[in-house]
Target: 7-carboxy-7-deazaguanine synthase
Amino acid sequence: MKKEIQDLVNQGKMLPLMEAFYTIQGEGFHKGTAAYFIRVGGCDVGCHWCDVKESWNPDIHPPTSADDIVNEAAKYSDTIVITGGEPLTWDMTYLTNKLKEKALKIHIETSGAYPLTGVWDWICLSPKKIKLPQTEIYSKAHELKVIVYNNSDFQFAEEQATQVNGNCILYLQPEWSKREKMMPLIVDYVMKNPKWRISLQTHKYLNIP
Model:
């Protein structure tokens, strides 16, 4: 990558854009609502069950002008979801400031593994055991979404729940390939521990992006 482009990427003025699309939010608190998704490439958290592993390597996704990303996003929706990959791999300040200039609501889906940058109306924190969140993001998260792949994830979820703020909404979500096995356990767990809610990947049931 040319130095001048790399400098712009480092400043967040260009980002390795994997894809962007208008769809229905499928998970968590805002499920069922329309939103424009911006999927940024680059992630070294490395969840073995990740369903977008093609997002991991930022080098295969073209550096794209953040201004162009914003202008395109504004055509579709007043709610923008930044996801990845791990979007906080990059400085989100420039992108989110430009989105705010257009009076858009900005959400992020993040593992929290990198320092929080940018201005956010909604932070969905989805922590991963192999690379834990930065301490600062726990107090700012609006929702905590823990992916349940096996039984040990319930304990991990409880450990993470002790660190978020008191208004943070707590979700357990079955990993897609394990949903039939884990869903009965999640249902039972939430009934016994009603501070938790169940999140489903409803977009996959609807067969939409």
Summary: The chain has one domain: 3-205. The chain has a mean pLDDT of 95.
